Amino acid sequence: MIIVVGADGSDRSIVALRRAIQFADAWGAQLHVVHVMHIPSSLLGALSQVPTDLASLEQAQRQMVWNVIDPVIEGAPMDMERVDLDGYPADAIVEYAKKVKADLIVVGSRGRGELAALVLGSTSHRIVHISPCDVLVVKAPFE
Asked: Could you list the residue range(s) of the whole structural domain that residue 19 is in?
């Protein structure tokens, strides 16, 4: 069994990650922890005028997220993959789940993009609708 969990470093995604670890451990499943970097095209235009290295900014952002995720997954007893992807989070997570033939996708009910979710719909909502496999949307205790 393969479980894919989306993690963006938000409190809600950490709750989902912990739940995914519990399930993977109980079921003897392989766990794929997926972080998706999404830089809106409007921001890319603005960044092109700033004399910085975009790759360095992306790497720093990824490292900040993994610095939050790594202590949670450290010592987890199951076979685990850490995965970095680029793109729109819902689409990237679902495409990755298809690629690895995942049996379950686990996500938090909301991530870092709460304002965008009000306008575009949440990542978890989109994943539920486009995923070929089961999806567990984990609500945080503070919701």
From this structure: 2-138
Q: For the segment 50-71, what is each residue's pLDDT rounded down to a tens digit?
A: 546 667 777 888 899 999 999 9
Name the residue among 56, 69, 60, 51 with its Cα closest to residue 8: 69
End-to-end CA, the chain: 30
pTM reported for the whole predicted model: 0.84
Tokens at residue 60, please? 């720093």
Q: State the Cα–Cα distance between residues 143 and 104, nearest whole angstrom.
A: 23
Give the pLDDT confidence of 77-104 residue by residue, as tens digits: 888 999 999 999 999 999 999 999 999 9
Position 120 confidence tier, pLDDT thresholds 50, 70, 90? very low
Q: Quick check: is 70 in a domain?
A: yes
Q: Please count the structural domains in the chain.
A: 1
For residue 127, the domain's CATH number is: 3.40.50.620
CA distance linking residue 45 with residue 76, whole number of Å: 40
